[in-house]
């Protein structure tokens, strides 16, 4: 081989090496670009995943709160329904108490003849059936006479001096009977209280 042939071969080799180097650097640049694109995509997907996790946790928390609110509403409605059933006769009871008072006053009148006596017996029977109806509805008389004064159940009209054997702060006399429906007072007993 001649000198020029060797030089040309070396030059050809150099060009080939340059091309290979150029090709390698282009490949490296492409790899770098791909890696950057992949890393940007991974960062985006990581941030999207974090956002989705946060939204999921918020929705889960909101779901739990809504379930708790539904349970509370259900319990509240159940209590209201039970109270409505338990105290359904409250308004009727309040309306009937004056009727009961009038029947009792009618029985307190004195009669002198047999017709009046039979009328009084009829009123007693009506009064007894009235008491039974009230008791079946859960309405009962508030015991007052001789009991300690309780402002939740008694309404004091006056104070009187205590007599022998009476304790202070007790009900001495009942002017008007009080009634309650289960644990609710329909009408407080009107009483006098010992000093």
- The total beta strand count reads 6
Main sheet summary: 3 strands, antiparallel
What's the domain count?
Answer: 2
Number of helices: 3
What's the shape?
A: rod-shaped
**What is the distance, rounded to the nearest whole angstrom, between the alpha carbons of the first and last residues?**
145 Å
Could you name the ranges where pLDDT drops below 50 across 5 or more consecutive residues?
Answer: none
Report the top-level CATH class of the largest domain.
Mainly Beta
- Derived from helix and strand composition plus strand pairing, the structural class reads alpha+beta
Order of helices and strands: HHHEEEEEE
Q: Output the radius of gyration.
A: 49 Å
So, CATH architecture of the largest domain?
Roll
Order of strands across the main sheet: 1-4-5
Question: In summary, what is this structure?
Answer:
The chain is α+β, with helices and mostly antiparallel strands and 195 residues long. The chain has helices at residues 3-86, 90-108, 114-136, and strands at 139-142, 154-160, 171-176, 178-181, 184-187, 189-194. 65% of the residues lie in helices and 16% in strands.
Description:
This protein is α+β, with helices and mostly antiparallel strands and 195 residues long. The protein has two domains: 1-86; 87-194, Nucleotide Exchange Factor Grpe, Chain A, domain 2. 65% of the residues lie in helices and 16% in strands. The chain is built from three helices and six strands; from the N terminus they run H-H-H-E-E-E-E-E-E. The strands form two sheets. The chain has a three-stranded antiparallel sheet. Helix 2 (90-108) packs antiparallel against helix 3. It is rod-shaped and about 155 Å long. The model has no long low-confidence stretch (mean pLDDT 84).
